[in-house]
Amino acid sequence: MTRPTLALTAALLALGAPPAAATGFTELGYDVLASTKARVDLHGVLRLRSELLRNLDLDRGPTPSGELLFPVSLSEPDRQTLYHADTRLRTDLAFYAPGGMVAVKARVDVLDNVSFGDSADGIPGGSLTQRPPGSAFIVKRAWGEAVTPLGYFAAGRMGAHWGLGMLSNGGDCADCDSGDAADRLTFATAALGHIFAVAYDFSAVGHDVARADEVRTVDVEPSAAVRTFSFAILNWRNDTSRARRTAAGKATFEYGLAWSHRWQDADVPASYLPLSVPVAIGPAQLVRRGLTADVADLWLRLETRHAHVELEAAYLHSKVDQASSLPGFELPEQVTSNQFGLALESTFGELDGAFDLGVDMGFASGDSAPGFGARPALQDLTAPVNGDLDGPQAVPPYDNTVDNFRFHPDYRVDRILFREIIGTVTDAFYLRPHARLRLATFHSARLDLGVTGVMSWANYASSTPGGHRPLGLEIDPTLAYHADNGFAVQLEYAVLFPWAGLDNPAAGLIAKPAQLLRLHLAFGW
Asked: What does pTM read for this prediction?
């Protein structure tokens, strides 16, 4: 069990999500109003992205395990430039019942992150068209909402987001690629100037088998099910209220505290692990697990006419009594995890004005084991060695702790190092100064120029490929055109100047700069 705390996605709120895209308690139910007629709302955006990636392997050679920091060409390993383009049509639908405070909502993504040129019809050299991929339509969410005299109730598969999205992220941002969802029952009510909310998640079934009709299934091992209970209290204002206070010269301070507990008594690893030879699932495949995990997450936001400061801080603790995935083979000690993460965002300048600047920062606790532990394989029990980029942070029975906090991959802080090479912010500290200048204002559109710098260091030198804590300096300029009619064009550039933490001392190679150029097109309604 190398990722015990990934299960801790706290079930909670989203801030500023679009209509029908509710990912948390502050959005759920806000648009369910009494009406004499049924109505349907549809919101969405078509996103097109193309990018040029230059030298993202940093020309520093492979790690001791033979892995490169980024994929290279099959026929020309020394080739410096790779290309990519993809698309996604995101649709959020809401159906409002007549005469009552009830709504049913769904999110359907079409061609989600499908590459341009993918699914060629037949032999690629002779293809005249693209056939629809098997996953052309992906229903990511479907849930119902009801407003009652006691409060708000919702049930179904819905988005999960809290605060800045550092830990639990609904994936609502324009550049997001994944996003969290939960099969959930939730209730929220307002009292004493606060919102109180509880949620119960069916996080995973134990082991289900087909019934006689071969349509439905039944969970035959409830002890292997994973359940999560969450509680949140917050003081929050909607965008309209916040804007009125800002226009009146008033400061708005908001806050929230969430706690989430997850548990699993037993497990059936053979039902989900990749096995070379399938095995029959029976009592012998049951493993005593004893998983418990807790997270406490604090969110703060202060907004004035000339300042916006937002912070999220989370502490996670978990234990796994039995981390073995082999029935009949038990490990002598628990695997434990203690992790801490913090993200701070600040912007100073008039809201949506001609100029603003700020400094962001983030910290994710680390683990002294080699590699960052950002995305270890599901069944990888091979101990990483010094110089590896990744690998499991716990390899029982020799190493029984996993202490590296991982930011959600949809919480973007840069464009190359954490996003493309490491995979996310983990075992690291970063500083992120940024500035934005409005170049032009049209009747219903704006043209902005922004620049961001990201300086990053690892917490443990043993986690880095180069054996040193300094990781690099990245500069990310942006030219963005946004129109009120939903059309947007954004041109992004990035250059990473790697520091000693990304070198290859064993081969005597120094990491070289990497570059990225990305074009975003968005058509929304």
From this structure: 0.91
